[in-house]
Amino acid sequence: MSLILLIEDEPQILLNLQEILELGDFTVITAPNGKIGLELAKSKYPDLIICDIMMPGLSGYDVLTELRHDPKCADIPLIFLTAKIERNDLRQGMSLGADDYITKPFEPFEILQAVKARLERHSISNQVYLKESHKSKALQQEIKKNRTELQNSQELAHIRGNLLEKFSEDLRNPLSKINMAIYMIKQAKNDEDRDKYLAILKEAYTQELDILNEMDSLQELLTSENTKLLRNYKLL
Question: Most CB within 10 Å of its CB: which of 76, 105, 107, 117?
Fold first, then answer.
């Protein structure tokens, strides 16, 4: 049930408005002047405010100005009540952020129609805002996810580049031994020398194979999915 705040300094009009709105199934709180009305607005956060313009102390324009400068109350719909409406008054109220005007005397259906229309419009605006807010949050999460994936990919590419450079260096040592052993086998003058260099050749082959196997294992481990885990355990 929507909460309506009535701000009106004429007691009979205030009572009439309250009865009309309560018969329309609205919950109503009242204020006899702008100062009390402003305090109630900032403490109760009503769904809509109906406010007289000409009041002693704080006028309706003053109340509206204060509300529009308060972030918590800035979007509360406000309908002005006025005995007569001039173009300058209308322009002033709309420039301050008024949502509608109702002139005195008024008919009950006119009040109820204006209130329901403003509440419905405000509800639609809130739904649109929430929808756009959810879209914005989803977009921010997607951007954050993409940024993390990009960071992981960049780190992964950097690690792979470093490993490739290291493996390249490690592979050169066995290759040097292999080249040397092949040359010495060709120069060997007896079986004993030949066997010695064959053993060196076999050792270098085994070392080369171990390095290649290690490279394959690291290729399986170094995936973008594992990068975050490796970073968490400070392995990167």
Answer: 76
* C-alpha gyration radius of the chain: 41
Q: Rounded CA gap, 49 and 41, in Å?
A: 8
pTM for this one? 0.53
- Please, are residues 52 and 81 in contact by the beta-carbon 8 Å criterion? yes
Determine contact, residues 52/6, Cβ cutoff 8 Å.
no
Mean of pLDDT over the chain = 78
pLDDT tier for residue 181 given thresholds of 50, 70 and 90: confident
Residue type (1 letter), 118: R
Beta carbons within 8 Å of 223's beta carbon, 6+ residues apart: 156
- Do residues 7 and 31 make contact, with C-beta atoms less than 8 angstroms apart? yes
Report CA-CA distances (Å) from 138 to 76, 133, 134, 151: 27, 9, 6, 20
Q: What is the pLDDT of residues 27-52, one digit of tens each?
A: 999 999 999 999 999 999 999 999 99
Q: Which residues pair with 3 in a beta bridge?
A: 27
pLDDT digits (tens, 9 = 90+) for 142-158: 767 766 666 666 666 66
* Both tokens assigned to 226: 């594992």
Residue 79 near residue 115 (C-beta atoms within 8 A): yes
- What domains are defined for the chain? 3-106 (3.40.50.2300), 138-232 (1.10.287)
* Structure tokens given for 68: 């529009």
Q: What is the pLDDT at residue 88?
A: 61
